[in-house]
Design goal:
heterodimer, A: mainly alpha, globular, B: alpha/beta, Rossmann fold, 11-stranded mixed β-sheet, two-stranded antiparallel ribbon, 19 helices
Chain lengths: ~80, ~550
């Protein structure tokens, strides 16, 4: 399973309504239904657990693209 | 009222409560269950396929495909229910909102991620750990049930107040029955003459503004050259059942300001109030100005604070004459509102973020709750005294009396917030679900003094934990006379500033008084240092 696929799977689990939109490299986080600051904490938790990494506190924001997350996580 | 003619709820609750009296026996029962599940799992593998890896791969593939199908159906049901509620005939908009809110609670609960076979991560973890995640999930549930029956959403072993949270150096310079006052040590040679007094909410602990070092608002302010004081409220027990809102105002808010002024040898302070702390501060200002009393406040800053409670958002679905009566009954024996009741209410307002992801993570996936300082603080909630709770719900949420001239008297002094004449700096947050920003803005309609309104991105907590950082993509909008019209139409038309509003706020404070003096010592003869911060009340 690629990093992208793993991230998308996490998004579907945290945001059940995310199936309403098509998620690709250019999707920005605030396009995800129910995205907000609380959800971002949960998403951060998912990324850190799923990829066993530490991310800076201000890494996630509404305008961040999926491709940027893939790069950060993969790097 | 929930109908339960067969008394099913109490039957199941009693079953669990009786078992908690024999915790060793209960552990044995769970151990047996875990062993049996593991054994079933191993048998299942043996009878299904000789190649364990192939079986696991096929199974997870099937689960992914099933969960995709489940999600599609979930969205269909979600949309249908929304339409069903929105189009219900002969129903007021307010009632529809109530229907939608409670329907949303059910929808959030039945999301496919909350069920094992439609949650690929849960199944994957189960397979990878050969059933170990199931054991962890049960253990996590048992820990939560034994504690307060709330799903943990922070790893409690990762944080400790005074060790890696609330560590900015300071001392308690005053203590009474309801609060301790912290004065933080200056870190600059010179300080601004006028101190900042921060009135914290008493619904949670004070240290939201002093979390980890990199997030600490207090640290930021002391480094900017301010002397900072902060209230740390006592977690009330039965002895404080008669503590009223007016006691918080006079014995807490006013007392803090007087002490700060005395220690800093100044006549007035910058005073900020966060959440209910801001409501109390507004009420105090309405009393002092209305009764022409000696006023120790130079300016007022309100963070996520409600003054006008006419549309307080979804929390209003929990407040009615009937629910207040019920809350009264809940407090009758112990004299306070339990912290778990308050926590659960706030979590329900955002159950999609604050309940269900943790149900899946902790119980289905068998993972530990995250190391989140913010959520650790959020879990560290407090009780509320009986008298204050009833007053707060009745007079503010139900009757909206704070905005009515002289409708409320505190210790006999009538309150009129329209008489406030100090400059006011107000911050609301776009996604705030506890103090909706449109409501926090409404104070501007009731006061005639100079005011600045800042609309910050994020929500009730993240909107205010906003340390300046070169990478920050947070936004804030400054609302003034030129763009006020756009605010009520579509705030997106107002050009945002990128970064933190903290610098803008401290610049505004300096505009009010820019005098500097040699840094003041912590405490003085009248208010000597009692002991080190974070103090004792925060531990209670």
């Amino acid at each position: 399973m690629s990093i992208f696929e793993k991230i998308v799977e996490g998004i579907f689990e945290l945001f059940p309504s995310a199936d309403e939109i098509e998620i690709n490299d250019d999707t920005v986080l605030e396009e995800i239904p129910d995205w907000d600051s609380m959800a971002s904490v949960n998403f951060m938790m998912f990324l850190q657990q799923a990829f066993d990494i530490q991310l800076p506190n201000d890494f996630l924001h509404g305008e961040l693209k999926i491709s940027e997350i893939v790069t950060q996580v993969g790097g | 009222m929930i109908t339960d003619p067969f008394d099913i709820t109490s039957s199941l609750t009693n079953l669990l409560t009786s078992w908690t009296k024999n915790s060793d026996g209960l552990k044995d029962m769970f151990k047996k269950l875990e062993e049996d599940i593991n054994s079933n799992f191993l048998n299942f593998l043996q009878t299904n396929d000789k190649s364990e890896n192939k079986f696991k791969k096929d199974l997870i593939k099937k689960v992914r495909s099933n969960s995709k199908y489940a999600r599609k159906n979930f969205i269909t049901i979600h949309k249908w229910i929304q339409e069903f509620v929105e189009n219900v005939p002969e129903t007021s908009d307010k009632e529809k909102e109530r229907y939608l809110f409670w329907s949303k609670q059910i929808l959030n609960a039945i999301s496919p991620s909350n069920f094992f076979w439609t949650n690929p991560t849960a199944v994957q973890n189960f397979l990878n750990s050969e059933g170990g995640s199931f054991k962890n999930g049960i253990d996590n549930w048992f820990k939560d049930y034994s504690k307060d029956n709330l799903i943990s959403f922070a790893n409690e072993d990762a944080f400790a107040v005074g060790e890696n949270l609330a560590t900015t150096k300071g001392s308690i310079v005053y203590k009474n029955d309801i609060f301790e006052l912290i004065q933080y040590e200056s870190v600059t040679k010179e300080n601004y003459k006028v101190p900042i007094v921060m009135i914290q909410p008493w619904i949670n602990k004070y240290y939201i503004f002093d979390l980890t070092e990199e997030m600490s608002f207090v640290k930021y302010l002391t480094e900017k050259g301010f002397t900072v004081f902060m209230t740390s409220w006592r977690n009330p027990d039965i002895t404080l059942r008669n503590l009223d809102f007016e006691d918080y105002i006079f014995d807490g808010v006013l007392k803090s300001i007087e002490i700060a002024n005395d220690i800093c040898k100044t006549k007035k302070s910058h005073v900020t109030g966060y959440c209910i702390g801001g409501t109390a501060l507004t009420a105090l200002s309405g009393i002092l100005n209305n009764n022409k009393m000696k006023n120790p406040i130079l300016d007022i800053s309100l963070f996520a604070s409600l003054t006008d409670f006419s549309s307080p958002g979804e929390i209003s679905f929990f407040v009615s004459k009937k629910s207040i009566q019920k809350i009264k009954e809940l407090m009758e024996i112990k004299g306070y509102l339990k912290s778990s009741y308050i926590s659960q209410t706030f979590r329900l307002l955002k159950s999609e973020s604050l309940i269900w992801p943790y149900f899946a993570n902790n119980y289905l996936n068998g993972s530990n709750p995250p190391n989140s300082d913010v959520f650790y603080w959020n879990s560290d909630s407090t009780r509320l005294p009986e008298k204050m709770s009833i007053f707060y719900l009745n007079e503010f949420y139900l009757r909206n009396n704070l905005i009515k001239s002289n409708a409320l008297k505190f210790r006999g002094f009538p309150c009129d917030i329209s008489k406030i004449n100090q400059p006011v700096y107000i911050v609301g947050a776009e996604q705030d679900h506890i103090a909706p920003w449109k409501e926090t803005y409404k104070i501007c309609d009731h006061i005639s003094s100079d005011s600045v309104f800042i609309l910050a991105s994020e929500g009730h907590i993240a909107g205010f934990l906003n340390p300046p950082s070169p990478n920050s993509r947070r936004k804030y909008r400054i609302i003034d006379d030129n763009n006020i019209g756009k605010l009520t139409k579509d705030f997106n038309e107002i050009e945002p500033n990128i970064g933190s509003w903290w610098d803008h706020w401290t610049d505004w404070l300096i505009e009010q008084d820019s005098n500097k003096i040699s840094s003041v010592a912590v405490g003085n003869k009248k208010y000597p240092v009692l002991y080190d911060a974070p103090g004792k009340y925060v531990m209670g």
